[in-house]
Amino acid sequence: MSVLNRVDEEYLSIIRQVPVIDLTDIDAARAAIKAVFAMAGTVEPHPEVIRSDHSIPNVPGAPDARIRVYRPRNAIGELPGLVWIQGGGYVLTTANPDDQWCERIAHDLQCVVASVIWRRAPEHPFPAAHDDCYATLKWMIASENAIGVNADLIAVGGASSGGGAAAALALRARDEGLPLLHQLLIYPMLDDRNTTRSSHLVTDLELWNRANNILAWQAYLGDAYGTDGVSPYAAPARAADLSGLAPATILTGELDLFVDENIEYAQRLLAADVSVEFHLYPAVHHGFDVHNPNGRQAKRLLQDRDDALRRAYAR
Amino acid sequence: MVGQSVAKVVLITGAATGIGAATAREFAGRGFIVVGADVDAGLGASLFAELGAPHEFHVLDVRDAAAWAAIIDAVVDRHGRLDVLHLNAGVMMRPKGSPIMDDPLDWFTPETYAKVRSVNLDGVAFGIMAGMNVQGLSRIIVTASGAALLPLDIDPCYTATKYGVLGLSLALEKPLAERGIRIDVICPGAIDTSLTAPDVREAIRQEDPSFIARSVATIATSEASGPVWMAFTEKEGLQRYEIPGLPGMAGALDVTDEA
C-alpha cells in the first residue's frame, strides 16, 4: 500500500529527490546512501566540539571496535555520556557516523558522545554490531577518568537499526549488571518477524519499506533468520522479560513501518514497570527528520530527543 | 580529528618493562591514550604492538634534554594534548640480572655513579622541564622508591638519586601548582621486575608491578592529596606518607631584629 500520499508535504519533495535505496543490490544501496549524504554537502566540524577516533578492546576473537568520540571543547570535569548507534538497517553505513547529530548533542547537552562505527552485515552478521556496541559501553564506563565522563550518567541511543541495537544494549547491560541511565530509541528496528500491520503497510520504493526491512534482517541474522533461534540481543521485541531495564524514550512516526512494533514495545515496557516517554509524530515516515530536519515534526523530534536526555541527565 | 584527542594522554618513561609496562596496560585499560618511552626498542615495540592503536611507543633516552623536547612536541602534535607524565625510568648501580649481595663499593665508580644519576635524577628533572610548559598538563608522577625514604646500603647511587628526586619534586610542588600542575611521588617497595636483583628475588617477597600500576593510576585520577605515597605491599595498599618536619625549625628562617 502506498503511504506517500499521506506523508506531510514538508518531506515529499526531498523524498522524490533522494536516490532510491533497494537492498536487493547491497553495493548499489551503499552507493545510493553515500549519494544521499553527498547531497547534504560537506559540513565543517563544530568549532566547539573536539572529536577523536579510537580503536577499543572488543570481545575475544573480534577486531578492536572503532568509535568516534565527541566532547564539548571547553567543558571541564565529569560530563554525562551517550553511546550513540547510527542507523542503516545493519547494512548501510558511510564514513560519517552521524557527526553533526553527535556534535549537536555533545554541545547542546554538554555531554560526551561515543558513536559506534559498527561492523556491517552481511559481511559481519549478528553478533558483530552488537558486540561493537557492548564494547563501546564498557569502554565508556572504564574510561570515565580518561574522557571525563560520570559513569553513573551514561545513556544509550540510536535510530532505526541503531535504535534496535540500543534497545539490545539496554537488555545486555541489564543482564550483565552494567549501570545504564537511559535508552533513547528513535524509530527503532526491533522485530525480525515483520508480522505487524505497519510492517506490511509500507511498500513504497522511496521509503524504508517491507522488502528492504526483510532483506536487512536476513543480512543481519544470516542462517538464524526465520528460526526461533533469533537472540533478543538481535531482535529486542523477542525479549521475554523487559523488567529492570533502563528508562526509555521512544520516538516514532505514524507512517513508519516500525510504528506498531514501537508502540508494542512501549506498552510492554510500561507493563514491566519501566518508565517510558513516547511520542508519535503525525504524517511522517521512517527517517523523516533526516530527510528534512527543518520540518515541523522533525523539529519536534529533535526537541523531544534533547528534552529526554536532559531529563535523564537531570539538567 | 579536530586537533585534539578527547581522551587524556599519558606519557610513561621506562614503559618497556616492569612498573612502566604495567602502568601502560593499566592506563590503556582505563581509556587513556598511552605514549610509552624507553631505551629498549624491542620490548617497547612488542608491548605496544600488543596494546595497539592509538597507543604508541617512542625510543627515548631520558638523559637527553633535546630528546625530551622532541618527544613532547611529537605527542602534542599528534594528540593535541598531554595530561599526565609518569617519570618512571630508572636504573641501579649494577646491570640488570647481577646479584646484589656483594660489596657496593666495588660498583661505586665515577662511570656507574654518572650513569645512575643521569637516568634517575637528570631524567626526571629534564622530564619535568619539558612537560611543565605543556598547556593542559595537570599531573606529574615520579617513581621514586622506598630508598627515597630509607637508605639502601647495597646501592648508594640509587639511594642518592631517589632521595634526590623526592627533594626535587617537593621543592617544585608549589611552583608547579601555580601552573596548575600537581606533582606526586610514589615510593614502591620490592617489586617483581627485572630491576630487582635475582638474589633479592629469591630471598624476599616482592609485589606484582600491577599493584604499583593501579596505585599510579589511582593517584593520577583522584583528588586525594599526596604529594608522597608509599606502596610497599598490596595488603597494606597505597598509603600517603607524612613528611616528617624538623624539630625547632618553625621560625628558624625568619630573619628578625630580635635574633
Residues in β-strands, percent of chain B: 5-15%
Low-confidence stretches of chain A: none
Rg calc of chain A? 18 Å
Separate helix tally of chain A: 11
Domain module tally of chain A = 1
Strand arrangement in the largest pleated sheet of chain A: 1-2-4-3-5-6-7-8
Tell me which protein chains meet in the greatest interface and how many residues each side has: A-B, 23 and 21 residues
CATH architecture of chain A: 3-Layer(aba) Sandwich
Overall geometric form of chain B: globular
Name the CATH architecture of chain B.
3-Layer(aba) Sandwich
Question: What's the helix and strand layout?
Answer:
The complex is a heterodimer of chains A (315) and B (259).
Chain A: H1 9-17, H2 26-39, E1 49-56, E2 65-72, E3 79-85, H3 99-109, E4 112-117, H4 128-142, H5 144-147, E5 149-159, H6 161-176, E6 182-186, H7 197-201, H8 210-221, E7 248-253, H9 259-271, E8 276-281, H10 288-291, H11 296-313
Parallel strand pairs in A: 3-4, 3-5, 5-6, 6-7, 7-8
Antiparallel strand pairs in A: 1-2, 2-4
Helix pairs in contact in A: 4-6
Chain B: E1 9-13, H1 18-29, E2 33-38, H2 41-51, E3 56-59, H3 65-79, E4 84-87, H4 110-131, E5 139-143, H5 156-178, E6 182-188, H6 198-203, H7 209-221, E7 228-231, E8 239-240
Parallel strand pairs in B: 1-2, 1-4, 2-3, 4-5, 5-6, 6-7
Antiparallel strand pairs in B: 7-8
Helix pairs in contact in B: 1-7, 3-4, 4-5
